[in-house]
Amino acid sequence: MFYALSWSVMFVVLVLWSLTVWTFHSIAAWTVSNAGVLAEGSGAIEGLRAPGWLAPWIPPELTLAVSSTLSALNPAIEAALGQAPALADGLSAAVWVVWGIGSTLIVILGLVCSRFITELRRRASLLAAPSVGIAAAN
Fold it and tell me: Which domain holds residue 12?
């Protein structure tokens, strides 16, 4: 009974792990495949401004420093987003490797739980056996 319960829990954890990895892969693949489109629109960084209610609280020097930093980083951001579609091929392989490692660890955890249940049952039978022997001797 305890073995079935522990392996059922491990199966549910494995299903949740698989769904999590699949969701991550779907989101990452979509992001990487649309990175070229994002690179074309990265000129919008220069148009970023603080909201009107926050602007009076921000020192003008900080606003100038942030805008100059963003405009200096704009070519680097465009270059990184331009190279992102090339990463799509390696993404699937990396996701499969991570899924395999996680699944292996989940199965190992299931084996450890089974061994733990075996030890608990053995201890329970060892503790129960001497008390039966003492009662029978009286």
Answer: 2-42+60-137
Tokens of 135: 């009662």
Kindly state whether residue 27 falls inside one of the protein's structural domains.
Answer: yes
Q: How many domains in the chain?
A: 1
Whole-model pTM over 0.90:
no
Q: Find the radius of gyration of the CA atoms of the chain.
A: 29
Is residue 104 in a domain?
yes
For residue 94, being part of any structural domain is answered with yes
CA geometry: angle at 24 spanning 107 and 94, to 5°? 70
Give the burial string for 87-114 (b: 16+ CB within 10 Å, else e). Answer: eeeebeeebeeebeebeeebeeebeebe
Tell me the per-residue pLDDT of 26-85, one tens digit each, with 9 for 90 and over.
888 887 777 666 556 555 555 667 777 877 888 889 888 888 887 788 787 777 777 776
103 located within any domain? yes
